[in-house]
């Protein structure tokens, strides 16, 4: 499998952590994308020109990290990381979507700050997305306090990848403050070999 990737993308990290936990890491050949000069192979794989994008061994082009995660889970017995059906599956997908929302709002802010000249940045946009991240973190704090992040799953992998991105790009926002249960949970989670192996340098 070929994965078009960027080492700092939280979506990519989620895919890589999942692959590692499923024992599929060795089957992935990762190619870094240069967004300034994207290769023809990358553009052909993902018309949206976003990472992650995966080319399967039989040539199928997959875009969007939730789809790629589904594919990876189907390549193994899933290791119990996402139940096949039922309320537990919905709960895990819902938690994973919350983490995905944190990534979306954090990446959106990061792009606004890094890609636009200061005079074109919209403070209202930044504040709105910062607020979404804060609210979602509060919901995760509640879940952590209730023990709902105790088991390794697609959801906890997604949450860990989102929190790792906040540490990378928004360290000054100090997401751990006032969220002791989530901070304690992440302190353990980030020690997993899958997390240390994929930590952006
Ligand atoms: N919904 C997508 C989001 C992917 C995404 O936005 N990736 C960013 C990197 S963090 C990207 O490739 N941005 C380049 C662009 O938007 O042109 C997913 O879950 O994979």
Quick structural gist:
The protein has 201 residues and is α+β, with helices and mostly antiparallel strands. The protein is built from eight helices and four strands; from the N terminus they run E-H-E-H-E-E-H-H-H-H-H-H.
Question: Would you write up a description of this structure?
Answer:
By secondary structure, the protein is α+β, with helices and mostly antiparallel strands. The protein contains 8 helices and 4 strands. It has helices at 10-21, 40-45, 65-74, 87-115, 123-145, 154-169, 180-189, 193-196; strands spanning 2-5, 29-32, 53-55, 61-63. Helix 4 runs antiparallel to helix 5. It is globular and about 45 Å long. Bound molecules: glutathione. Glutathione binds next to loops.
Name its key features.
single chain, about 200 residues, alpha+beta, Glutaredoxin, Glutathione S-transferase Yfyf (Class Pi), Chain A, domain 2, 2 domains, four-stranded mixed β-sheet, 8 helices, 4 strands, about 55% helix, binds glutathione
Q: Give the helices and strands as they follow along the chain.
A: EHEHEEHHHHHH
Helicity level, as a percent range?
40-55%
When the domains are counted, the total is 2
Identify low-pLDDT runs.
none
What's the tally of helices?
Answer: 8
Mean of pLDDT: 97
| Proportion of beta-strand residues | 5-15%
**N-to-C terminal Cα separation, in Å?**
23 Å
Bound molecules: glutathione
* Class by alpha and beta content: alpha+beta
- CATH topology descriptor of the largest domain: Glutathione S-transferase Yfyf (Class Pi), Chain A, domain 2
The CATH level-2 architecture of the largest domain is identified as Up-down Bundle
Q: What is the count of β-strands?
A: 4
């Amino acid at each position: 499998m070929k994965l078009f990737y960027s080492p700092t993308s939280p979506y990519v990290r989620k895919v890589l952590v999942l692959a590692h936990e499923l024992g599929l890491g060795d089957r992935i050949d990762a190619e870094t994308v240069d967004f300034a000069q994207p290769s023809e192979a990358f553009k052909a794989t993902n018309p949206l020109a976003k990472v992650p994008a995966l080319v399967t061994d039989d040539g199928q082009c997959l875009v969007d990290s939730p789809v790629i995660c589904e594919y990876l889970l189907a390549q193994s017995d899933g290791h119990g990381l996402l139940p096949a059906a039922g309320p537990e599956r919905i709960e895990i997908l819902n938690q994973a979507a919350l983490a995905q929302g944190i990534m979306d709002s954090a990446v959106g802010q990061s792009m606004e700050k890094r890609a636009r000249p200061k005079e074109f940045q919209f403070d209202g946009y930044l504040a709105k997305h910062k607020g979404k991240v804060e609210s979602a973190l509060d919901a995760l704090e509640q879940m952590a306090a209730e023990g709902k992040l105790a088991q390794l799953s697609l959801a906890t992998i997604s949450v860990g990848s989102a929190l790792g991105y906040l540490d990378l790009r928004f360290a000054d926002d100090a997401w751990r403050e006032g969220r002791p249960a989530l901070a304690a949970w992440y302190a353990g989670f980030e020690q997993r070999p899958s997390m240390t192996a994929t930590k952006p340098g």
